[in-house]
Queue: 2 jobs
Job 1
Amino acid sequence: MTRGLLNQFKFVLTESELREIKSLNLPNNSSFLLIYFINQQKPILNLDDLNKLLDFTSTEAMDALNDLIKNNLVEINMQKNINGKLEEVISLNPFYTGIEMKLKENHQEQQTVKIFEIFESEFGRTLSPMEYELINGWLSTGVSEELLIAALKEAIYNGVRNFRYIDKIIYEWGKKGFKSTKDIEDNLKRNKKEDNQELFDYNWLDNDK
């Protein structure tokens, strides 16, 4: 990093910001400029300031900025300052949107791994590649993790450790419009009042296996 920048600032980055910057594999100048923008309350595109603070030439500053724009990490917005004059303000929304998306993807991956582990625990064995694909297929078609685990419990309650049976349960629940365990509970309550339980309708939530 340039001497001018080190003398002027102490930079603060969150763990998520640091991890994201490292994963981007940007050229040094682009990384320095991004870190500089992150630490500004209102990043303004001022080449003279960038030249002084980062020891960049105008060409280096613009190359680094264009690299950040090309990688969809920053965008330039025109805003009026307190004097009513338009100025170019750097927005970091694309950068933080990228972090948010990765955090969500990581969470989803962790949840999927958890579902696999639950199935393997209930089945008492390692799942086959085809069974992994079936679970991923259910999730990709919009079956919630909550409902998928409920269908597994339904099958176990009925003594059937079979993916076809679980698929049938999911299909039947889909026809009834069930999206969550609350939908199942509401249906059970209605059936109890009518004293007419339908297929797969029992209160597995009260069952500890």
Job 2
Amino acid sequence: MLRIRRLSGQELTASADEIANAASLKKHLCKQYELPVFLQNLLILLHEGNQLGDGAKLEASMELQAVLTISGLSESDHRLAEKELLKAAAQNRGKVVRSLLEVGVAKDCHTPAGKTPLMLACAHGHLEIVSLLLGAGADQKCQSNAGNTALMFASNRGDVEVVRLLLGAGGHKQKNYRNGEGRTALMHAAAGGHLWVVRLLLDAGASVNLVDECGRTAAGLALDSWHFSLAQILFDAGASWKLS
């Protein structure tokens, strides 16, 4: 049995009988432990940390260390690492997100549409991933090509816990940001009928009388979608009666 250790102290295992060489071990570690192959460096601990080439044969007596690193990667591999982070954030794959953040993959990388890992995690309601990214310093001020922020994505989804987490981590500063249509997080929540998200945003000081590019307030959007009780809450908070 091969013994492989990560810098974090995590111990990994693989059967020496089933692993032909370093390349096949990397594939095994990727499949079993979600460690991206192109970021793996395998070191022989008992031989002063000599790095193993992909064709190197392995022996059961070897004690190895698996090191994930972006050092020395080509520009295309850097972009590949960013794509892996974006995909992992959208798919709720916490181990991959954590590993990629640990080696320094850009936490605010983005898709062609300008969506960051934090935005994707918020859009899908992945609370653990949102927490990991915020802990790594992901920037809530980022806006997609359409002008949406992470707070807008979470508010549009109506995810109370994610919105609460964002606001508590500084997202209250983006409460009145507007996207390309002039909509705020409060407008997104009101249009979707997300009562408790609306309450959270109001408590954070979100403005009730901003209008989108069509002249609609959050209350107007709520009424347009037949969310009458929610609209009343906005009126009670000082919203105007300007409707679409």
